[in-house]
Amino acid sequence: MIRVQREDFDIGAELDKLAAGDRSVGGVASFVGLVRDVIGPGGGPDSVSALTLEHYPGMTERKLAEIEAEANRRWPLSASLIVHRYGRLEPGDRIVLVATASPHREAALAACHFLIDWLKTDAPFWKSEETPKGERWVAARAEDEDAKRRWRG
Amino acid sequence: MKLLYFAWLRTRIGHAEEQTTLPAHVRDVSGLLEWLRGRGPAYAEALRDLSVVRVAVNQDYVGGDHPIRDADEVAIFPPVTGG
Q: Could you give the domains of chain A?
């Protein structure tokens, strides 16, 4: 299931729902992405006080659904979930939840890792950070492309 | 054609969306980007370095040689940074 929303989500409730009613599920894996202040408390010229996530409505849901379908092709999943937020968020806030349920842990863990790696390079979201020096758009990281490449094949 | 711009391409170009009619000689994505660059300094500056520009036609990523038509929705944006 895919959800793109402004509101926060309840991790416990989402994970409970994912496996509810399916007694063949042996494990649920999850990844939660948070807004990070690169400097930490106390500040500095590059500290991040907030970020705004922009996205491309329509294409976002489409790409997330494609990524989820690909994970389900590669691993025997009982259920999967991607929740991604947009709008203005502050350090510590939750941005994204990826969760997978499977009869066995290997599939759940690998599919969860795959989903977050692909999401980072394929889903059309952009982060703009608020810092003491003003707003700046976050640049894409080459490491994210490398992480996705690992899953080729 | 419906053109959409996101993130710093939107702020540099100055608007999020526009409706435009393609000249007959513009047939693919590379041709579109070249034509847009000639539309003024804001476009030229925003589209100066195409290594940091991604294009989606009808919500799918495409390369420079992808054909385009007036009925398409074309989105132009920087590499994505979600997650």
A: 2-148 (3.90.1170.40)
Task: Enumerate residues 6+ apart whose C-beta is below 8 A from A79.
Answer: A1, A18, A19, A22, A25, A100, A101
Closest to A56 (Cβ–Cβ): which among B6, B8, B83? Answer: B6
> ipTM for the complex?
0.95
Whether the pTM exceeds 0.90: the reply is yes
Q: Do A56 and B59 touch (CB under 8 A)?
A: yes
Nearest to A125 among B8, B75, B80 (CB): B80
Question: Nearest C-alpha of chain A: how many angstroms from B10?
Answer: 11
Fold of the domain built from segment(s) B2-77? Ubiquitin-like (UB roll) (3.10.20)
Residue-wise pLDDT tens digits, A8-53: 999 999 999 999 999 999 999 999 999 988 766 666 777 889 999 9
Cβ A71 vs Cβ A83: under 8 Å: no
